[in-house]
UniProtKB/TrEMBL annotation:
Transmembrane segments: none annotated. The keyword Transcription does not apply. The gene is surE. A divalent metal cation binds at D11, D12, S42, N90. Its cofactor is a divalent metal cation. This is 5'-nucleotidase SurE. One of its GO terms (molecular function) is 5'-nucleotidase activity. Its EC number is 3.1.3.5. It comes from Halorubrum lacusprofundi (strain ATCC 49239 / DSM 5036 / JCM 8891 / ACAM 34). InterPro entries: SurE (IPR030048), SurE-like_Pase/nucleotidase (IPR002828), SurE-like_sf (IPR036523).
Length: 271
């Protein structure tokens, strides 16, 4: 398929530096229309509103809603002729199977897949301590993410990759601030890591706090993942590309047929 129009969204908000970096990069080749949240809606997952307010923006439309709101409004009302949906570039990586459902960036791509529209979710790993998210980024630092996204929008659609995958989850390492002299990171096809280590701590006074120890391991380069996983690729300085399908696929061999058949016999005398 050929791509002419791109619907661009994110979960960091329409004025985020990462979104602007992708907009500028993709606009060189495509008609890009942004439909993105008015502010930060990170970790919104696939939350959907009853309705949303929209306003014109220099890049397209600002939506007072979630990333999924943006995709539904975009593909069914505002930009129905979009050939591809691009979500990002997210400030912070979306790595590992356990992050996919909670990520607003990835959820936007998932929603596009239900519209049968190819989608690319792009995120960038930002190294640092616990306050890495406070770091102010320059557009040039998104160069690896921008290059990879431009390449995949053009080549993955042309090659028929989306006949086999519903969307691509892309995670790129941060680039040098001087993007013009930065060597492009290599690309690796990956699968989401299955490692899970979320922790909860109860303070005894009515509050439970959560932490994800993988971020510290990533800073140290000592992640529990082998080559071929998304997290390992990013730590190794590679662009990770995971070809994925929409969730909740039925598993016909789960061994439940006999249980379902027996259910009526077990409950027939229960009132």
């Amino acid at each position: 398929m050929s791509v002419e129009r791109v619907l661009l969204t994110n979960d960091d908000g329409i004025d985020a530096v990462g979104l602007r970096a992708l907009y500028d990069g993709l606009s060189a080749d495509y008609d890009v229309v942004t439909v993105a949240p008015t502010g930060d809606r990170s970790s919104a997952g696939r939350a959907l509103s009853d309705g949303v307010d929209i306003a014109d923006h220099e890049l397209g439309y600002a939506v007072d809603g979630t990333p999924v709101d943006c995709v539904v409004a975009g593909l069914d009302a505002l930009v129905p002729d979009a050939d591809v949906v691009v979500a990002g570039c997210n400030k912070g990586a979306n790595l590992g199977a356990y992050t996919l459902g909670r990520s607003g960036t990835v959820s936007a791509a998932v929603e596009a897949a239900f519209f049968d529209v190819p989608a690319v979710a792009t995120s960038m790993y930002v190294p640092g301590g616990e306050d890495w998210w406070k770091r102010k980024l320059e557009p040039a630092e998104f160069a690896n993410a921008t290059r990879a996204t431009r390449y995949l929008v053009a080549e993955a659609t042309a090659s028929g990759a989306f006949d086999r995958a519903d969307y691509l989850n892309v995670n790129a390492p941060i680039a040098n601030p001087d993007g013009e002299r930065d060597t492009p990171a290599p690309m690796r096809v990956t699968a989401p890591s299955t490692w899970y280590g979320m922790e909860a701590a109860h303070d005894g006074n009515g509050r439970v706090s959560f932490s994800d120890p993988i971020w510290g391991k990533m800073n140290e380069g000592d992640v529990p993942d082998s080559v071929g996983t998304d997290r390992r690729a990013v730590i190794d300085g590679e662009v990770s590309v995971s070809p994925l399908s929409v969730p909740h696929a039925a598993e016909p061999d789960a061994g439940l047929d006999e249980l379902a058949a027996a259910y009526g016999r077990v409950t027939e005398n229960v009132r």
